[in-house]
Specification:
38% of the residues are buried. Helix 6 crosses helix 13. A hairpin with a 6-residue loop joins strand 4 and strand 5. The protein has a six-stranded parallel sheet with strand order 1-6-3-2-7-15, with helices on one face. It is an alpha/beta fold and 493 residues long. It has two domains: 233 residues, 3-Layer(bba) Sandwich (FAD/NAD(P)-binding domain), CATH 3.50.50.60; 134 residues, no CATH class. The chain has 13 helices and 15 strands. The longest helix is centred in the C-terminal third of the chain and has 30 residues. The chain is 32% helix and 12% strand. Keywords: FAD, Flavoprotein, Oxidoreductase. It comes from Allomyces macrogynus (strain ATCC 38327).
Length: 493
C-alpha cells in the first residue's frame, strides 16, 4: 500500500483530483488523470485488506457474512488439474503433451465446447490464460474479463432451449433490491419498456449480493458449475495460469498442429497472425442518483467531494447503460514485443448514443425521487432536480447539457465487460475470419467458439447468445471430426 500512501499526500491528492490534467485539451494529460485515478481506486477498493473503518462508513458488512459454512456434497465439481512445475520444459527441450482437443480460454464458450467434445469421447484439455482487469492503450476504457474458471460467466430455438435448460435460466422467484426497484418504477413512470432479465439461479430466490465475485452459495449456474462440471465428469483436464502465445500450424500451414484449438477475443491476432483486428466492446457508462432513504446498492471529483459521496453511498442507486458500438472503433494490435494491445476511440455516433442513454438513465433517477444526479461526464457538474417532474425547465436544461457535452474518450468514465467480434463469422471469403461453422479460413482443425465470432456487437448482455453460438460450433466440430474419421477409414481400407 506504499503507493496508496504516497497518493494520499498533498501532491498525490492534487494529481488524483485532476486539476489541470482532468479537463486538459491534451489527451495525454487526461490519460494521466484517468490512470492515477483508476490505480488509486483499485488499490483501495480492489484490495482484500480494505480498512474496517472504510467498510463501516460504506455500510458494507463484508463478503456475504451469512453464507453457509459448507455446501451440499457434489455442489462444486472436482476439477482435474494438471500440475506443471515452473521448471518443467525449456526452449531446447519443451514439454510435450498430446490431446485430441486443446481449448484456450474457457469462459462461456470454452466450457460448452469442452463438455460437448468430451461427451463425444475426445481427449480434451482446457488452458486458462490470464484475465482480469485490462485497459485500452490510452486508458480511455477499462476492459474487464473473467480471471477464474468459467471466465466472465462466474443459434436455433432448439439450441437456445438446450442452453437455457442446462443453465437453469428463468425469471421465477426474482426479487428486486432497492436499486432494481428504482429502475423498474422509473421506466414505468416514463412509459419505457421494462421486464425482468432471466437469471441463471435455478429459479430460486437468491440475494447473496456477491454473485459478481463468485457465488459463495453455488446458486449462480456459471460455466464452471455447469458445462465444465459436465466436462470434468467426461475426463476433461485443466491447466491453470497458462499464457498462450500462438497456435503453430503444420508445415504446409493448412492444418493446426493440434487437432482443435478454440481461442478467446484478446488472442485473435496471435492465433491468426493478423497485425490488426477489429473488436466490439459494448462501452458502458453510468448515472448515479442519491436518495433521501437508503438504497444500499464514483466519480472522483477531489478528495473532499469523493469522501462526501462515499459517505452517502448507501443512499445511492446506479443505472448502468450499455451502448451498442455500431462503428466498432476498437482495434487489437501487436506491440513491439508481440503482445496484444487494445486501441480505442469512441466514434461520434456511438458517443451520441451513449449520451442519450445517460440522459434516459438520469430521467429514470429523477422520476423516482433522486435528490442529486451524477454522471460519469467530467464536464457535466452534479445536478439537484427541483422535483420528480422530468419536464421541469431546469431538468430539461440539465438533460440537454448531458446530450450536448456527449460521451467522449477520456472525458467520461467508460468500461467494457463484454468483448466480441474480433474473428467475425460470415459467408464472406475476403472479409471475415471464420466460416459459418466456426472454422478459421484456410486452417483445418482451428476453430473459434466464443463471442469472438459475433458478426456485430450484440448491444445487450451476450451470455445466452455466446453459449448458443458455441453450442452449435461445438456440435459442428464433432460432425467435422466424424466426417474426417470416415474418410480416413475409407482410405485406410
Amino acid at each position: 500500500m506504499l503507493l496508496a500512501d504516497l497518493l494520499a499526500k498533498p501532491n498525490g491528492t492534487r494529481l488524483l483530483s485532476g486539476g489541470k490534467f482532468k479537463m486538459s485539451r491534451k489527451p495525454q494529460n487526461r490519460a494521466v488523470f484517468f490512470l492515477f485515478k483508476s490505480l488509486a481506486d483499485f488499490l483501495v477498493y480492489g484490495s482484500n485488506r480494505v480498512p474496517a473503518q472504510l467498510n463501516a462508513m460504506l455500510g458494507y458488512p463484508g463478503s456475504d457474512p451469512d453464507h453457509p459454512k459448507s455446501l451440499p456434497p457434489d455442489t462444486i465439481p472436482q476439477f482435474r488439474f494438471i500440475d506443471i512445475p515452473v521448471s518443467t520444459g525449456t526452449l531446447a527441450t519443451p514439454l510435450t503433451m498430446k490431446f485430441d482437443v486443446v481449448i484456450v480460454v474457457s469462459g462461456a464458450g470454452g466450457g460448452v465446447t469442452a463438455a460437448t467434445l468430451a461427451h463425444d469421447g475426445l481427449h480434451v484439455v482446457t488452458l486458462y490464460d490470464r484475465g482480469g482487469m485490462n485497459a485500452s492503450e490510452d486508458a480511455s476504457i477499462a476492459v474487464i474479463a473473467g480471471k477464474t474458471l468459467g471466465g466472465g460467466t462466474t443459434g436455433s430455438k432448439k439450441t437456445i432451449d438446450a442452453v437455457c435448460d442446462r443453465l437453469c435460466i428463468g425469471t421465477a422467484e426474482i426479487k428486486h433490491n432497492k436499486s432494481k426497484t428504482i429502475l423498474f418504477d422509473g421506466c414505468k413512470k416514463l412509459g419505457l419498456y421494462v421486464e425482468d432479465f432471466p437469471q441463471n439461479a435455478r429459479n430460486q430466490p437468491h440475494e447473496c449480493g456477491d454473485c459478481g465475485f463468485g457465488c459463495t452459495r453455488a446458486m449462480k449456474q456459471s460455466s464452471a458449475l455447469t458445462w465444465l462440471g459436465d466436462a470434468t465428469a467426461d475426463g476433461v483436464q485443466i491447466i491453470q495460469s497458462c499464457h498462450v502465445e500462438k497456435a503453430l500450424p503444420s508445415k504446409d500451414k493448412k492444418t493446426a498442429r493440434s487437432v482443435q484449438d478454440i481461442v478467446g477475443p484478446h488472442k485473435i491476432p496471435l492465433i491468426i497472425e493478423a497485425p490488426t483486428v477489429v473488436l466490439g466492446l459494448l462501452p458502458a457508462c453510468m448515472a448515479v442518483g442519491y436518495y433521501p432513504e437508503e438504497t444500499r446498492p464514483l466519480r472522483w471529483n477531489g478528495p473532499v467531494a469523493s469522501k462526501q459521496q462515499l459517505a452517502k453511498i448507501i443512499y445511492a442507486a446506479c443505472v448502468i447503460v450499455i451502448t451498442c458500438d455500431r462503428d466498432r472503433n476498437a482495434r487489437i494490435v501487436l506491440d513491439e514485443g508481440g503482445s496484444p494491445v487494445i486501441q480505442f476511440v469512441l466514434s461520434p455516433f456511438d458517443g451520441a448514443s451513449a449520451a442519450e442513454d445517460l440522459a434516459r438513465a438520469a430521467q429514470i433517477l429523477i422520476a423516482t425521487g433522486a435528490q442529486r444526479i451524477v454522471t460519469g461526464q467530467l464536464n457535466v457538474p452534479a445536478f439537484e432536480p427541483p422535483s420528480t417532474n422530468v419536464g421541469d425547465p431546469k431538468t430539461v436544461a440539465f438533460l440537454e447539457k448531458v446530450r450536448a457535452k456527449g460521451v467522449r474518450s477520456l472525458h467520461t468514465t467508460l468500461l467494457s465487460a463484454h468483448q466480441m467480434g474480433s474473428a467475425r463469422m460470415s459467408m464472406s471469403l475476403a472479409r471475415d475470419v471464420t466460416t459459418p461453422r466456426g472454422q478459421v479460413r484456410g486452417v483445418q482443425g482451428l476453430y473459434i467458439a466464443d463471442a469472438s465470432s459475433f458478426p456485430k456487437s450484440s448491444g445487450v448482455n451476450p451470455m445466452i447468445t455466446t453459449y448458443s453460438v458455441t453450442y452449435s460450433v461445438a456440435n459442428w466440430i464433432v460432425e467435422d471430426i466424424q466426417s474426417k474419421s470416415k474418410i480416413d477409414s475409407a482410405i485406410h481400407v
